[in-house]
């Protein structure tokens, strides 16, 4: 397995020329550069392929890909693991969450090579991808668009669109690329059943506000259209407030309204769900929200009915493994409040 020949010090983002050369030298010494040699195509014919259409074109993908590379930090790695495929390499999440891979899948990804970025957080290093000799590359459409042609010369490359309100969109797209549609439907169905069962523990949900601090004195107030958690609440019988028509602020389509600290008074839900991002910036934004002058006067805050959940998990960036985690965190905290505002346990 590739990870056994990598120096542990190289399992972190490689962003400089010197460390990239070191990364390639180690792989070359281990005999893993053959995929980049001029003789790479002289062996036996490859396995049968099928045509996969995707947002950036079409790709002739092996019927049973064995060396898959995941090039995005928006759930390609968790989705592949959920489908029963362990990729040979995946793009690092380091600059976003401070660790190579999401904690909810770190154990299962222990043998996956941590691929460096080529610059920005979503920019793949094509050279590092090539040394892994992939037979399929999967990545977020916007993240790989500029490098798509170069990646396609390395291996068949499939772009996947992401819906930050529904992880099923990305999972189904990846399942279609690897021929595991049935597995995807089982994952989606199992989560839907578990979600329904867990929400029954909450009784009458009442009114709920879903908020995220993004820094700079700005907060997002979400609608069910813009947040998976807000949608779950609405589908379980709760009322998400304020509605788009009631909210005062700068709307972003029908997904959320951007407000400042002076407008926090409209967060009137019986329960407030606060989403926060991992890392220093996320913690600072959370502190800014909860330190705002109007915060302590909100009905849910006065009643002690505030739930805090990880935003990256809730938007599907950690796949259905993250959904499972955020669902449990949400319900466990909420259930600890005791009776709902409506009076029914």
UniProtKB/TrEMBL annotation:
Gene3D superfamilies xrefs: Nitrogenase molybdenum iron protein domain
Pfam family name, one: Peripla_BP_2
UniProt subcellular location: Cell envelope
Superkingdom of this protein's organism: Bacteria
Keyword annotations from UniProtKB, A to Z: Signal, Transport
Domain Fe/B12 periplasmic-binding span(s) in chain numbering: 68-338
UniProt name for this protein: Iron-siderophore ABC transporter substrate-binding protein
UniProt organism field: Pseudonocardia yuanmonensis
């Amino acid at each position: 397995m590739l990870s056994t020949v990598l120096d542990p010090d190289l399992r972190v983002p490689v962003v400089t020329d010197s460390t990239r050369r070191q990364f390639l030298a180690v792989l070359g010494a281990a005999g893993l550069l053959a995929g980049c040699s001029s003789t790479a195509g002289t062996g036996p014919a490859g396995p049968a392929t099928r045509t996969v259409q995707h947002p950036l074109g079409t790709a002739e993908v092996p019927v049973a890909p064995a060396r898959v590379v995941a090039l995005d930090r928006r759930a390609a790695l968790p989705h592949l693991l959920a489908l029963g495929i362990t990729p040979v390499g995946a793009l690092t999440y380091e600059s976003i969450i401070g660790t190579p891979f999401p904690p909810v899948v770190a154990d299962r990804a222990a043998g996956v090579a941590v691929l460096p970025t080529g610059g920005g957080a979503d920019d793949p290093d094509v050279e590092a991808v090539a040394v892994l000799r992939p037979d399929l590359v999967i990545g977020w459409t916007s993240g790989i668009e500029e490098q798509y042609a170069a990646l396609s010369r390395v291996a068949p490359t499939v772009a996947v669109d992401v819906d930050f309100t529904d992880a099923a969109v990305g999972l189904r797209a990846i399942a279609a690329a690897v021929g595991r549609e049935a597995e995807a439907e089982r994952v989606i169905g199992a989560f839907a059943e578990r979600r329904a069962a867990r929400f029954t523990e909450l009784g009458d949900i009442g009114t709920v506000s879903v908020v995220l601090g993004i820094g700079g004195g700005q907060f997002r107030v979400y609608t069910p259209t813009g947040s998976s958690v807000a949608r779950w609440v609405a589908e379980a019988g709760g009322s998400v407030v304020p509605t788009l028509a009631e909210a005062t602020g700068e709307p972003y389509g029908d997904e959320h309204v951007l407000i400042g600290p002076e407008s926090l008074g409209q967060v009137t839900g019986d329960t407030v769900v606060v989403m926060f991002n991992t890392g220093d910036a996320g913690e600072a934004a959370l502190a800014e929200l909860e330190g705002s002058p109007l915060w302590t006067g909100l009905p849910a805050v006065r009643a002690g009915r505030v739930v805090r959940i990880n935003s990256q998990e809730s938007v599907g960036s950690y796949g259905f493994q993250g959904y499972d985690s955020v669902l449990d965190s949400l319900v466990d905290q909420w259930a600890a409040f005791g009776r709902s505002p409506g009076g029914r346990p």
